[in-house]
Design goal:
Layout lengths: L9 H9 L8 H8 L6 H6 L9 E7 L4 E7 L8 E2 L4 E8 L2 E9 L3 E10 L4 E4 L4 E5 L6 E8 L4 E5 L6 E5 L4 H5 L1
Antiparallel strand pairs: 1-2, 2-9, 3-10, 4-7, 4-9, 5-6, 5-8, 10-11
């Protein structure tokens, strides 16, 4: 296992995650390790691909323990309000400014925004298993973010903000497929 303060390469991260039982990993442990992950900027740049219809989920790598994606956001692109159906999530801003909103269940009114933050490089945020959130590019510029999900994200629980009702949405690597 790498030193708790030293940066880790992708190879070291793969090894550390392979030695971890993800179901027992806390958000703090996940963030502590993933925050030290240092990716070659060329790896991120090779995986940047924008699409006009919605934000793009571009595959980098996947193991049984985690997956690594580069997400690309045109101005105005946003996610649904969702949780990760049991996966931990770490998000680092590579380029641009990302808006991150956390929601809480509100009696009689569905969901309410509990907090909102704007993130720019090299800022990061994370989402714990039960947290409900939304990401958005509220700027005028393109945004590129790096996401790590543990275990790999195969579905979302999508929330109706007004009623709090939910539906399950399977995911693939480009969200355009999910909107079809």
């Amino acid at each position: 296992m790498p030193s708790p303060t030293a940066s880790v390469s992708l190879d070291e991260y793969l090894l550390a995650m392979a030695q971890t039982r993800i179901a027992d990993m806390t958000q703090a442990e996940f963030v502590g390790l993933t925050d030290r992950l240092r990716l070659d900027p060329a790896l991120i740049e090779r995986n940047i691909a924008f699409i006009p219809e919605a934000y793009a989920r571009n595959f980098v790598c996947r193991t049984p323990q985690f997956e690594l994606l580069v997400l690309c956001w045109e101005p105005g692109h946003r996610t649904t309000v969702h949780d990760h159906a049991g996966s931990l999530n770490f998000i680092r801003v590579h380029r641009g400014e990302l808006t991150s909103r956390l929601f809480e269940k509100a009696p009689e009114t569905g969901l309410a925004v509990a907090s909102e933050e704007r993130l720019a490089p090299p800022d990061h945020t994370s989402v714990d298993r039960p947290e409900i959130h939304q990401l958005a590019n509220t700027s005028r510029d393109r945004v590129v973010t790096v996401h790590v999900y543990a275990p790999p994200l195969t579905q979302l629980t999508v929330y109706d903000v007004e009623t709090g009702s939910t539906r399950s949405l399977p995911l693939r690597y480009t969200v355009v497929d999910d909107l079809a």
